[in-house]
């Protein structure tokens, strides 16, 4: 229970009318102008100072200052920094000022000029007011009458303790109490004329009707956000300069602050484009990086001067859940205080799990639920995907690739079941802001204190029904620059794609023992350097699909999926596995699905698809002036009749590509470990090395086969133990080979955490096995983002000096007390100051 200490408004007659204020009261005044609010503040502040109260003025409005007098402490808070920064700063100043402080806040209506959203003003009041109440403060707020929506006023009314209308009619002030919590008198809720210290209740009907007939009351108002866009539509009929100015202003509301992405959108979006986006937004706020990247890529292709892409582009009809809904969800459920605690260094990890669990189980406001229903009714029973689209995502410098969740909604069942699945998917994406990977990513990049509002992109899933399953013919990821050049004849600038049959999840997620097709777009039919026997083994065997009967994302066998494809020739994507077919026949199997090898041979050789993809990637990268990473799907009617859907586009964030690396020139007498030209994959890198594991070629070749396997297991043990360190692995021949005489037979799982791998061959020593370029091991390296290099010891331009490492202390015995092989074979060094540098443009590599 609050203390029943009565607090004066500074107007004795009005104190009597409302039985005074109480500690904990938030007092909201609805006013016609800021001058009237200032008039009512003055006696309150004078009385508080007279009673030796601590008075704080929180200044953020554009209107004239409300208080300019000694004894009042003023805080200036910048609302332009955004809701989260603003609300957090005010929360912390309230915390610092402590109990029984008296406050005056500027008019909340002025926040519209910074946030353009009534929704967010309601959110701010709902997070600020309870904390002020908790600390036994008394706080004055104002809102301008006839500006805000009824729902905003309703949220303020339900949260505040005291709500008062303040009118100025013919030079006189009238106060009309609308809510006075836990107080009542027979005349309390009549209007009252204020005459100095005296107050007269307007109880006569004739006086009351005369008063209210002079007061302007209007019908329900739109959210200020909608008012802005509605008024801006008029500019579509005006000159181009006006349209461009209006477009840029609206872009600050939907896309964000000035940035490289903003400038690109400014170049490729029209004012009409911005209105189209706004018309498909649920709520208010930014649409987020993933939505912006997808829309920008599509517009770049649509605006191509040669009109090369229009006939190949699948239409899109996405919706966007505005970033303000994320905050509204947190505020509505009463978690703001927990979020503020989580945003501190001390609470960053400590409170993340609790907040994540709460986010997974919250309730959405009823008006937002209605908009969700409308989106679901639009899509009917078409499968949709709910994708994260945070403010920082898919931008230059911070991709957040794979850090946040995306959720497929197969969208089957009753309307109630489909709606529940949609809400659960949105909650899952929101909760993924508290995922460990996302938290680490933000912390490592110094972003943990930045606003990371989560918008959401709702996309129709591309594809069709094939019996019980729904999927596109092909999907994948395209890079405009080929980071994994394994042959000097590969044109890095032609780009590459990772191609799968079915949903693209297998192209973006690592799948154990299954492989996407790596395609170099300069020579799409280029065969990887592997034995023919390996082609089937190291291809795609499972297909990700949406099961309509099970209402879930799942995987099926390739033969099952492709057998039901009815709308295009299957040999576009796969070749019949004749060897397996004959074997099944010899074994007496009947009515089995025809076995296939997924090689995409006809798509890559006989269709225009590879060339179209090459041109798409090149055009987007040209406009970005930066390499790009694009997720896509494609559906075919025949080899040259297909539609491509660009579902995501972002600047390519792989091991420093796009950021040049300065490789110093060193003289022959300067020591180094490795110096070479070409024969590496992984882009421009500067990798500090913590540990180097070197396997000596001579020593290894002299071991028995059993001891060679022992070397592999020992290295696996070491790299697992050092999985959080940057390890450089250097050894003879093919890492991961099944033939110990050709290299160290480690399992990929044993070395999947290393930062870089180097394979060494030597013609002088008669050890020149085919290295891992293009092999299945190469596929693993590509998928796991491991830097790869090959050293041809003894060739011109190659320096390889193992003594640079072996002269340092061998700490192998930290893992193997009594080595079964000589410690001259495996040398483990904890190195200091060693760096691996590569420049993919100049094709130079240096490690020292």
UniProtKB/TrEMBL annotation:
Give one GO molecular function term. pyruvate, water dikinase activity
| Pyruvate phosphate dikinase AMP/ATP-binding domain boundaries | 287-666
Query: Per its UniProt record, what Pfam families does this chain match?
Result: PPDK_N (PF01326)
Top-level EC class: transferase
> What is the catalytic activity of this protein?
pyruvate + ATP + H2O = phosphoenolpyruvate + AMP + phosphate + 2 H(+)
Needed co-factor(s): Mg(2+)
Q: Which UniProt keywords apply?
A: ATP-binding, Kinase, Magnesium, Metal-binding, Nucleotide-binding, Pyruvate, Transferase
UniProt lists the family membership as follows: Belongs to the PEP-utilizing enzyme family.
The job of this chain, per UniProt, is described as: Catalyzes the phosphorylation of pyruvate to phosphoenolpyruvate.
The record's annotation in PANTHER family points to: PHOSPHOENOLPYRUVATE SYNTHASE
State what protein this is by name: Phosphoenolpyruvate synthase
